[in-house]
Amino acid sequence: MQLALSLTSLALFVSLALANPLAPVVYKELDTRQGPLIPDNCTTYSSANAGTVCIHVPYDCTSFYEVQLGETCLSIAAKFNSFSLTQFFKWNPDIGQTCISLRAYVPVCIATPWYIFEPPLIQYPPGALVSAADTPVPIMPQITAFCKTFQLVGEGTTVDQILGQHGIDIQEFVLWNALVQVQNPVVWRDYFVCVEV
After folding, report:
1. Overall pTM surpassing 0.90 (yes/no)
2. CA 56 to chain centre
3. Element (H, E) at 159
4. How many Cβ atoms sit within 10 Å of the Cβ of residue 57?
5. For the chain, which terminus, N or C, has the lower number of CB atoms within 10 Å?
6. Which residue has the higher pLDDT, 140 or 1?
């Protein structure tokens, strides 16, 4: 019975298509702009060291750099001194705002024709307060999605110092920065932590 129904449905579809083969099919919500529709700008990259990965970069990226073992977002930005860490993340969203997904032997975008670098700001100075709207990079992993203000941790900065500066307690701080532990609170130098939600 199912086979007969399927054959009947197929016959009906073919007869309708043959009845008016040149009639254009109109879809009201179809994007009719010129060029191919690309749902994902993934570029497949393969190398012996990196394997095969999908990278997302701007279509107009004019310069690429292959990440070397041991490099960080900050070390790459300092090497080229031509873009901010925030811009580096925007060009290369696969690295994540934490920069933890930066992979050795995988190319990253380091230039586009429309970006104008304003030296010397590769990164904010230690202790800087930055709003979430300004997309601070890198942030410590597991920070609340509701963070409004971030602070860049400098060398020697302690959690107690951060708590005192902002009048918050350790319970709030670990709630906003889940990677930090109450018993042994440690923050990462050169990373942003959440100080206000």
Report:
1. no
2. 9
3. helix 159-166
4. 20
5. N
6. 140
Owner of token pair 């879809």: 27
How many CA atoms does the CB half-sphere of 174 hold within 13 Å?
11
**What is d(CA 83, CA 116) in angstroms, rounded to the nearest whole number?**
8
- Which tens digits make up the pLDDT trace of 96-148? 999 999 999 999 999 999 988 887 688 999 999 999 999 999 999 999 999 99
At 12, is the secondary structure helix, strand, or coil? Answer: helix
Task: Report the candidate in 121, 134, 129 with the shortest Cα–Cα distance to residue 195.
Answer: 129
What domains lie within the chain, and their CATH numbers?
42-111 (3.10.350.10), 129-196 (no CATH)
Token code pair at residue 191: 């990373």
Amino acid code (one letter) for 174:
V
Q: Which residues contact 156 (CB under 8 A, 6 or more apart)?
A: none
- Write out the two tokens for 10: 């197929």
DSSP single-letter state for residue 128: -
